[in-house]
Amino acid sequence: MIPAGLARTLAWTLAILTALLASPARADLLAEIEQRGTLIVGVKADVPSWGLLDKASGRIIGLEPDLAKDLAERLGVDLELVPVLSADRVSALERRRVDVVIATLNQTPERSKQLALVSPSYYESGASLLTRRKDGFNDWSELRNRRICSRRGSFYNRPIAVEYGADIVALYSAEIALAALRDGRCDGFLGDTAVFGLMLQDPAMAARYEMTLPALNPTGWAVALRREERGGRLENLISETIIDWLSSGLIGRLEDKWGIPRSDFSRRMEAYWSEHSQRKNH
């Protein structure tokens, strides 16, 4: 029997791939990128190991910048990385500051209307809460009327506020939200299980903070394009590239490279897509 999480992921993938096949190409961003000779990708610059500005070199480094580099190499063009925050990922695409966003962007129905979300997902995470150890949160219901910091643009904010009555304070970046938690201006920091799990690998962080609540709403992370690129050559090429990232084990190797604990998602998707590719080749 296929696990429920995998079934949801595969159903989403099938729906998006079906839409791609049925949708006419309205634009050819790929030709524009090839003519320019540069792929411009929006990535995070405030999330360690996923996308962080290295002050020594002045470069943005991490797992997602590495994916952007791989994509540019496949296109045979140079790469330009542009830092984006959670609050401005959509506008960076819509205002044509970037061609592509690879920036911890969860798939949601609302975003699928705004953007072209390339399928399949290359990663997955759920909502979680980072808290000070002394505060001892045991259940999501304990968030009622508590001041909870988050990031602007996070799709978790409204559901957690509505369902659990949390007083969500949407801040500009993860760095500011963590500082607010550290200084006692918030009772918790709402964010991604994948990001918090990595942060707690640091013994100093683990000594002060914990992530005890069960993950909510596990959702895939999507590479995003402008809505008008839906069904275009670039979307199809990126979809094939993501399948190769998963089937070849590249995602898992990059997790190891950047000190990210191997996720159940990357293991499941590597097994699924490698088997799928073998069946296709035979």
UniProtKB/TrEMBL annotation:
The keyword Signal applies. Residues 38-261 form the Solute-binding protein family 3/N-terminal domain. It comes from the Bacteria. Pfam families: SBP_bac_3. Residues 1-27 form the signal peptide. Belongs to the bacterial solute-binding protein 3 family. This is Amino acid ABC transporter, amino acid-binding protein. It comes from Imhoffiella purpurea.
